[in-house]
Amino acid sequence: EVQLVETGGGLIQPGGSLRLSCAASGFTVSSNYMSWVRQAPGKGLEWVSVIYSGGSTYYADSVKGRFTISRDNSKNTLYLQMNSLRAEDTAVYYCARVIVTGTHNWFDPWGQGTLVTVSS
Amino acid sequence: SSELTQDPAVSVALGQTVRITCQGDSLRSYYASWYQQKPGQAPVLVIYGKNNRPSGIPDRFSGSSSGNTASLTITGAQAEDEADYYCNSRDSSGNHPWVFGGGTKLTVL
């Protein structure tokens, strides 16, 4: 079964750091595009970051320079290192596999999400 | 930056047909994908590509596209279809790889 499980969320003070993990099963993280998407309380989905199978990484402007996406091939796990956290980073963070075939692109599966709360 | 625009809320009578739309320049170049999200749950893919349903998604869900508008149609809406629906596409502006619409809250009356 193809599955993603996120861990690492929690309560963190403004300016602090947190690392989220996303363990994959049923497929190989390094052979796929993998992304983080977040959802602030009561708000919509916001794309955050992606790492391509070739290793290229991209970020939303709102997190560029503060967040770093990476993967550990031996653990088949995706990470999101979040530094200099702000109150507006408070959200449920989802990881998802991105399937890309020309003009067709979709996110599937999604993890269950992990809540990050930035507050003093 | 590229944007995808959705109506914030749509309602449909039980058993009737409803169309949820998504507008954006990137949809002239890329197909949209659609996600259903129920309260407290992760998003679930319901439509991708030209009009493809993942395994387990009922055939009352269908997708279409014309110009800069993608549509998700539910034919014979059921009570369990009440949820938030999000569209997603590549960002053709080149600023970021992907973009999500703001979401549509579907109420089944």
Task: Explain what this protein looks like in three dimensions.
Chain A has strands at residues 3-7, 10-12, 18-25, 33-39, 45-51, 57-59, 67-72, 77-82, 91-101, 104-110, 114-118. In chain A, the strands form two sheets. In chain A, strands 2, 4, 5, 6, 9, 10 and 11 form a seven-stranded mixed β-sheet that branches. A four-stranded antiparallel β-sheet of chain A has the order 1-3-8-7, with no helix packed on it. The mean pLDDT of chain A is 97. By secondary structure, chain A is mainly β. The radius of gyration of chain A is 14 Å and the shape is globular. Chain B has 109 residues and is mainly beta. Chain B has no helices and ten strands. Chain B has strands at 5-6, 9-12, 18-23, 33-37, 44-47, 61-66, 69-74, 83-90, 98-100, 104-108. In chain B, the strands form two sheets. In chain B, strands 2, 4, 5, 8, 9 and 10 form a six-stranded mixed β-sheet that branches. Chain B is globular. The A-B interface holds A 35, 37, 44-47, 50, 58, 60-61, 94, 98-99, 101, 103-113 and B 1, 29-31, 33, 35, 37, 42-45, 48-50, 54, 84, 86, 88-90, 95-103.
Number of strands of chain B: 10
Distance between the termini of chain B: 36 Å
What's the oligomerization state?
A: heterodimer
> What's the overall geometry of chain B?
globular
Instruction: Compute the CA-based radius of gyration of chain A.
Output: 14 Å
Q: Average pLDDT across residues of chain A? A: 97
Q: State the secondary-structure class of chain B.
A: mainly beta
How much of the sequence lies in strands of chain A comes to over 45%
| Element-level helix/strand string of chain A | EEEEEEEEEEE
Residues in helix, % of chain A: under 10%
Radius of gyration of CA atoms of chain B, rounded to a whole number = 13 Å
List keywords for this structure.
heterodimer; A: 120 residues; mainly beta; seven-stranded mixed β-sheet; four-stranded antiparallel β-sheet; B: 109 residues; six-stranded mixed β-sheet; 45% strand; globular
